[in-house]
Amino acid sequence: xxxxxxxxxxxxxLAIDCKAQERPYFVTYSHEMEEPGNLEIEFFNAVGxxxxxxxxxxxxxxxxxxxxxxxTSEVYLDGQMTQHxxxxxxxxxxxxxxxxxxxxxxxxxxxxxxxxxxxxDKALREVVGHDGKDDFLEPNAEAREEEERELEFKLILGSxxxxxxxxxxxxxxxxxxxxxxxxxxxxxxxxxxxxxxxAHDCTFCGEKFQAGIEMYGGLGDRYSFGTHLTSHYLGxxxxxxxxxxxxxxxxxxxxxxxxxxxxxxxxxxxxxIDQLWERFHRGGR
Amino acid sequence: MIxxxxxxxxxxxxxxxxxxxxxxxxxxxxxxxxxxxxxxPYHDQPDAIAAGxxxxxxxxxxxxGENAEGSKKRPPLKSERVQQEATEGDLHWLLVNGNMRRGMxxxxxxxxxxxxxxxxxxxxxxx
Lengths: 285, 127
Fold this sequence. Notes:
The structure holds 2 protein chains of 2 kinds. Chain A is mainly β.
């Protein structure tokens, strides 16, 4: 029943006429910023089942605003639903991305700073430290008592080359209580199926699809840096720039070791509102 | 007090002067000679113009107007600067790098082929 409600909400979002063209990544950030004045609304989900635990769906609604051409700000609202358990709001995040070099280079760095206040989170927006499948076994009532207030920093490196986008993220997280720094990584690559645009309107032509691959995982913490007892995921991903400017993304992802959840299915819907404030001035378009 | 006022004015006016400078097409001076000389592989091709128009409407028109006429804050692209002063290579350089201080984002996210199609469309507006 609850799953049906989530799917119905997803379908309702599909009816909104806006536009977006996203990279087919769920965890990895590219160096591409939101266009100034645009607001992008995204709805991301991760479905999985840890061995010995209940199936879950972790969801994130994301509001991404292009403050300037070199500064993007985002607010996330997270929630999760666990079968045979409960549906809960798990917290919020506020992140800012800054692009220090104002021209396109071979490798383009972006600095990322985020504050998050979450508990019992299952959205898997990133994997750091020794995050693993056992974190998903705790009942929601117990897990949500453990509130995490964290600062997260990322160095995002991105390149565009002959239609390919290649992005790498280095992640460092500090829980504001007395816990050590935790580290993680993510990388991804993608390319449109066709590089040149068609002369005529089309729904399923190659330039409307982007295919890619994504991998991410934890790198331990300050006292035990490395891949021992860390989880890692890898999977192909595909997105489609649907009619009315909506972008739909899907990725099956696979845990690469026993510490990971064996399979995750991720899907997302994104749409973009162009020039948000100007719409008010000219009474909508 | 006067010193503080002068410092404040300087801090406000310097970036403003820079922005005004950038608005009058000073980005053209930054284009390297190698990029300046580039030409569109789709020059004058009707299919590329049509494809470029589609991309323009999708990506650029919300700032620069449905027919590239510009808006209150964004420049028209039928201007003499775009149509005559700037070469196809200059426009390609601008699309790849943007003019981020002036609010023009980098469009390097689009494949080169699509950038050239947009440029082919823009240049066709003159004819």
